[in-house]
Amino acid sequence: MTEMSLELPEGAIWPDNIYMTGKSEYTPQHQLRSPVNLFQSGNIVKICAPMVRYSKLAFRTLVRKYNCDLCYTPMIIAADFVRSVKARHSEFTTNQGDHPLIVQFAAKEAQVLADAACIVSPFADGIDINCGCPQRWAMAEGYGACLINRPEAVQEMVKQVRNQVENPMFSVSVKIRIHNDLQRTVDLCQKAEAAGVSWITVHGRNAEERHQPVHYDAIKIIKQSVSVPVVANGDMKSFKDVENVHQITGADGVMVARGLLANPAMFAGYEETPLKCIQDWVNIALEHGTPFMCFHHHLMYMMERITSKQEKKIFNVLSSTSAVVDYLRENYGLQ
Ligand SMILES: Cc1cc2nc3c(=O)[nH]c(=O)nc-3n(C[C@H](O)[C@H](O)[C@H](O)COP(=O)(O)O)c2cc1C
């Protein structure tokens, strides 16, 4: 398969016959946009986290305008993706400008993950294995954070993707939480490294922790224990936080979720969402035909810090895209 298949119109969904061709060919263009190269630049790599319902194509397009270097899709269940045409169509949409892009999968079986990786490999730059989701349903299914206790299973998944996706520049990363006993996390990371993982993202909390302070010291120890790049994640709300965490941990990259929802221009150094960014979101979302709920939720997040209680009372209950656009025009002069 060639780059031609990337020339579908904005927001197009890839036809199923393209998915099913499986293995992709390696082309020099892949090398140019390899995410692994980003880590070799020496600059801290700024990453938009995987976020179910939120890190979709329209939002990725927005954050890329504001200095985000690398974007993740929301988590996709690999088994459903491989099995169901409907799941593929609803879960994965991309376009030509959506690079570098990592598709994050929830998986527990190496062959299923490798199949899913082969399907997306012509259209993305890498896949990530979710080893951090602490939600009860995910753990019960054997996905997410319970994988940090199965280092051999993680190794096998990394190896199978490496062996079965032909493009050598295609990345295979993992996103983990930490153990109470940090030595077990170090062991997991070293095993993942031995299996050929491209980089490791560490959300510096254990699977039980929610709002407790992030253990940046643990991320620092992990960074010192492996040679592959390490990405720090957790509680960065401003560019200053990014710089602090970079300094404390020595991490090669930073991954941000809620900070970018609140201010998609954060990586460009803005302290709060600039009006220009809100206008960009309106333009991008309308262009992509973003469903109202998603369009509105993002605006509520972005405007949280810049609107009064009174304004929120009105804005948050608006119930159609046209009502939101009218409100923004009348109150903020947006188009
Ligand atoms: C709305 C939302 C959706 C999320 N979805 C995912 C996901 O699909 N996969 C994943 O690995 N983590 C997911 N996370 C966790 C984040 O990627 C991140 O690890 C966590 O929020 C800590 O980073 P933060 O402090 O920058 O928000 C999600 C978080 C939020 C807030």
Weakly predicted, low-confidence segments: 1-31
Largest sheet, spatial ordering of strands: 1-2-4-5-6-7-8-9
* Rg value: 20 Å
Biggest β-sheet description: 8 strands, parallel, barrel
> How would you classify the helix and strand content by structural class?
alpha/beta
Bound molecules: flavin mononucleotide
Tell me the CATH superfamily of the largest domain.
Aldolase class I
Keywords: Flavoprotein, FMN, Oxidoreductase, tRNA processing
Protein name: tRNA-dihydrouridine synthase
Cofactor: FMN
Pfam families: Dus
Description:
The structure is a single chain. This protein is of the alpha/beta class. It has 2 domains: 4-261, Aldolase class I (TIM Barrel); 275-332. The protein is 45% helix and 12% strand. It is built from 17 helices and 9 strands. It has helices at residues 16-19, 28-32, 35-40, 57-65, 78-83, 85-91, 110-120, 136-140, 151-164, 182-195, 216-225, 239-249, 258-262, 275-288, 292-303, 309-315, 321-332, and strands at 45-48, 70-72, 76-77, 101-106, 126-131, 171-177, 200-203, 230-233, 253-256. Strands 1-2-4-5-6-7-8-9 form an 8-stranded parallel beta barrel, surrounded by 6 helices. Strand 4, helix 7 and strand 5 (126-131) form a beta-alpha-beta unit. The longest helix has 14 residues, at 151-164. It is globular and about 55 Å long. Residues 49-52, 54, 74-75, 104, 130, 132-133, 175, 203, 233-236, 256-259 line the site of flavin mononucleotide. It comes from Gekko japonicus (Schlegel's Japanese gecko). Its EC number is 1.3.1.-. Residues 48-311 form the DUS-like FMN-binding domain. Belongs to the dus family. This is tRNA-dihydrouridine synthase.
